[in-house]
Amino acid sequence: MTSETDQLCVDTIRTLSMDAIQKANSGHPGLPMAMAPAAFVLFRRIMSHDPADPQWPDRDRFLLSAGHGSMLLYAVLHLTGYDLPMDELKQFRQWGSRTAGHPERDRETITPGVEVTTGPLGQGFANGVGMAMAEQYLRERYGEQVQDHHTFAIVSDGDLMEGIASEAASLAGQIGLGRLVYLYDDNDISLDGPTSLSFDRENVAMRFEAYGWQVLELTDANDLDAIENAIREGMANEQQPTLIRVKSVIGYPSPNKQGSSAAHGAALGDEEVALTKEVLGWDPDKTFFVPEGVYDAFDMKGPGGEAHAEWNERFEAWRSDDADRAQEWDCAWASPGRPLPGMADALPTSFDKDKIATRGVGGKVMAAFEPFTPTMLGGAADLTESTKTIFPESDRFTAEKAGRNIFFGVREHAMGAAVNGLAGHGGIVCPYGSTFLQFADYMRGAIRLSALMGLHVAWVYTHDSVALGEDGPTHQPVEHLAALRAIPGLVVLRPADAHETTEAWRVILEDLEGPAVLILSRQDLPVLDQEQYGSAAGVGRGAYVLSDPDDAEATIIATGSEVSVALAAADELDVAVRVVSMPSWELFEQQDDDYQESVLPVDLPTVSVEAGIRQGWERYADSIVSIDRFGASAPGATVLEELGITPSHVAQRVRELLDDD
Ligand SMILES: Cc1ncc(C[n+]2csc(CCOP(=O)(O)OP(=O)(O)O)c2C)c(N)n1
Ligand SMILES: [Mg+2]
Fold first, then answer.
1. 3 state SS for 132-160
2. Which of 30, 153, 367, 640 could form a disulfide with 251 if both were Cys (CB 3.0 to 4.6 A apart)?
3. 10 Å Cβ neighbour count for 217?
């Protein structure tokens, strides 16, 4: 039954949203107004959450995938008792506020209760899939007494039009994520106008049924009990994810703008806000007004705090039962999660061949750290065989059993966002996703969001250059290193050999706090003699000197696969040259000036070599050996030769540079 107070609570979400958006003269009122009842039911009747501790590991998760409706979330967080005061609502969308235009999970400006950054439609939908996977894995590993919750989301037409949501829904159906319950704001409106423009022939319900979801229908977005019952029905189905299609009216009950795209993305206007308040029976002159009784009725600090306290008791008993398990939990739930102590000593230090592809080394390193990262999950987009990313002692993640190896299928977009969801959930140590470097483009939206959120994830990309050979230019990355380096906050690591690959994984797992890209080769690369050359311990500093003759007249810098080309070029030259391995620009930039100068002295003319476009190398090199065109289908060695990635070409460039001086 909808009591008068419940109705007031729902309408307070509506009025706060209208007021904040009106004050900012910017924002999206339509969704918060229409979906206020659903949000009220979720946050007040369904979800177990404690506003006093937004990080409580066993809270239910909520994602506003339709991030443009951010005021819905802010209003509900405020009213249920999160540390988001009314002043923050009044600062909606302003510089430095905690009420950004779209919900932001941010390391610096924390909006309590925001689980992930949403805004790019479809991403939140797919993040939730990762979150539900995290819950399932942790529940099976640690037991229901400590992990036993659901993942909810509000998704919009735009979310469901995006391909990433289809991939993610298909994956969720495949692995039967029964703890996933999504409400679909089916309002027949998107930004450009009615969905008849672009999205009304498709039968969304049948599509989701075909994916293996349970689909429920609600004809009245304002019927609180019906919403509650549907959500509970979704939760009761442990075998399938649930989509609840909520027929709603955008901007309800604005007399002149409801039901039209005019309510989607602009403030309603003072007059319309006043008219809408009148329809609701509210005083049109009052703004940011919370009627008596609403805070009490909305409060979740009481009930959420109780649930949390009960959990604490169970958790303490569970913890004190088993010290090893407690240590495992603490490492996993640290921010960011870390491997168990002793990992570094277990990593391989010698290799039985003198040439190994770094992807092959990557596989060996993963096998070595597998026991130290018991909650690290990840997988490849149907390229496990090629990227060599697997935990050999672990199971597959299936509907029956949540193992550590996720077979994402050919779904790069969903993989990226699901990995972000795994990380966003907490308790999962550095989840990873893997494919060919070329296909990083397909998941770029998710990579960018991992950096924006500062999530501790690893993107493992193999087949890192034209050297992959015969598959040709569709599979050969050339601009990808530059494109990844362009993303702020993302650490790109391209190790040169087996030792650097091992150290790169260690740096990612033990040192980095945010996302990393690990770029590995398909082709064999010489294992660099650690006695003869600078130690791979330098990887963490981004660049280090490999060989440094006293009378060096020039420097050659290279990354990854081209480091051995640089060393061979140095051997070919009559003049002495220093060779620098630079696995990571970003880590090098973090070093102090003295270190940078010690590696790349300004007075030495410098040649760089990397099998990719030249963009950016101007900052380090006087002469750049690069590939500024697409590759070609031919054996890898031929392509490298034809495109000038050879020791003799690099040596020639050094000679030319010295002649110029
Ligand atoms: C990937 C992506 N493309 C485009 C946009 C811009 N955009 C924001 S909302 C929206 C569509 C709005 O329609 P719907 O999702 O149905 O939301 P509603 O208007 O019903 O609230 C668009 C295109 C976006 N946020 N993300
Ligand atoms: Mg819509």
1. HHHHHHHHHHHCCCCCCCCEEEEEEHHHH
2. 30
3. 13
Does the beta carbon of 230 lie inside 6 Å of ligand 1? no
Neighbours of ion ligand 2 (CB under 5 A): 156-157, 187, 189-190
pLDDT recorded at residue 108: 84
Instruction: Tell me the pairing of strands 242-247 and 180-186.
Output: parallel
Domains of the chain: 4-305 (3.40.50.970), 343-526 (3.40.50.970), 538-660 (3.40.50.920)
Does the annotation count 412 as an active-site position? yes
pLDDT of res. 568: 98
Per-residue DSSP letter, 361: H
pLDDT value of residue 109: 84
**Per residue, what are the HEC states of 211-240?**
HCCEEEEECCCCCHHHHHHHHHHHHHCCCC
Output the CA 413–ligand 2 centroid distance in Å.
Answer: 22
Q: What type of residue sits at position 29?
A: P
Q: Is 2 exposed, middle or buried (0-12, 13-18, 19+ CB in 10 A)?
A: middle
What is the Rg, in whole angstroms, of the alpha carbon atoms belonging to the chain? 27
DSSP 182-210: EEEEE-SEETTEEGGGTSSSS-HHHHHHH
Torsion of CA 588, 592, 593, 594, to 10 degrees: -110
CA distances from 646 to 570, 571, 652 (A): 12, 13, 10
**Whether residue 253 has a cis bond before it, omega within 30° of 0:** yes
Contact 268, 276 (CB under 8 A): yes
Ligand 1 pocket member 190 (CB < 6 A): yes
The ligand whose atoms approach the alpha carbon of 102 most closely is 1
* CA 130 to ligand 2 center in whole angstroms: 24
Rounded Cα–Cα distance for residues 58 and 47 (Å): 11
Does ligand 1 come within 6 angstroms of the Cβ of 30? yes
Find out whether 428 and 134 touch, Cβ atoms under 8 Å: yes
Q: Active-site residue among 104, 228, 412, 500? A: 412
Q: Where does the pLDDT of residue 5 fall: very low under 50, low under 70, confident under 90, or very high at 90 and above?
A: very high
Mutation choice for ligand 1 from 117, 248, 264, 448, CB with most ligand atoms inside 8 A: 264
Strands 458-462 and 516-519, sheet pairing: parallel
Q: 66 CB less than 6 Å from ligand 1?
A: yes
Give the dihedral of Cα atoms 359, 363, 366, 368; nearest 10 deg.
Answer: -120
| CA 426–ligand 1 middle distance (angstroms) | 28
Q: What is the pLDDT of residues 134-146, one digit of tens each?
A: 999 999 999 999 9
Ligand 1 nearest-atom number relative to CA 445: 1
pTM above 0.90, yes or no: yes
Tell me if 20 CB under 6 Å of ligand 1.
no
**pLDDT tens digits for 557-615?**
999 999 999 999 999 999 999 999 999 999 999 999 999 999 999 999 999 999 999 99
Question: Chain-centre distance of CA 228, in angstroms?
Answer: 30
119 touches ligand 1 (CB under 6 Å):
yes
Question: If you count them, how many residues does the chain have?
Answer: 661
State yes or no: pLDDT of 553 exceeds 70.
Answer: yes
Ligand nearest, relative to CA of residue 65: 1
The CB of 121 under 6 Å from ligand 1? The reply is: yes
Q: What is the pLDDT of residues 483-497, one digit of tens each?
A: 999 999 999 999 999
